[in-house]
Amino acid sequence: AQSVTQLDSQVPVFEEAPVELRCNYSSSVSVYLFWYVQYPNQGLQLLLKYLSGSTLVESINGFEAEFNKSQTSFHLRKPSVHISDTAEYFCAVSEDFGNEKLTFGTGTRLTIIP
Amino acid sequence: GAGVSQSPSNKVTEKGKDVELRCDPISGHTALYWYRQSLGQGLEFLIYFQGNSAPDKSGLPSDRFSAERTGGSVSTLTIQRTQQEDSAVYLCASSLAGQGRAGYTFGSGTRLTVV
Questions:
Q1: Is B40 in contact with A106 (Cβ distance < 8 A)?
Q2: CB within 8 A of B41, min separation 6: which ones?
Q3: Which of B4, B9, B34, B104 to mutate: most A Cβ within 10 Å?
Q4: pLDDT tens digits, residue range B31-64?
Q5: Which of B41, B48, B106 sits opposite A101 (nearest CB)?
């Protein structure tokens, strides 16, 4: 069965500093990987996804994540964060067979310090 | 509609009562999913509907939970004899056929509080 681990429940970062949110997954088959973001008092939004092809994927607001099969990781990075990046970030995995449910991690709360 | 609509947005109920949560997916989306988000935990898969296929109910935590989807559109999640541990945000998502996992759109959720 698939599983996702987000080791950091909270990450405080100074504004304009870089950040990395860690995500590791476990699965015995091929997977698809996702990062979702939940801004305060808002619903979940897809930030970026890895389905196939290039292992480095980017979002429109400067985040990127790299699929590393050997390390079973899909860490999220941004070189310079802004106050508006304050949110909870969820990593999710979906196995390449059967139904299309997502298995989510427990989330990382990113707090940007002015 | 433009997005996935869930109602009510908030529900407070007494322990032991039944509740119904509604999800109205995006028009044309054939797949519909229910998840539960508990405080300090990730999202937990509950149930999945795809077109006319039998739903995948493997995530329902107990037989107090059930869901149906009428006419391939609106879905209702029913929790019978609610318990305090049922308190959570219940999220619904839908996607187009063929997009599946790649094209989820989530609703804003129903926050259920059992007192």
A1: yes
A2: A106
A3: B104
A4: 899 999 988 778 899 999 988 888 999 999 999 9
A5: B48
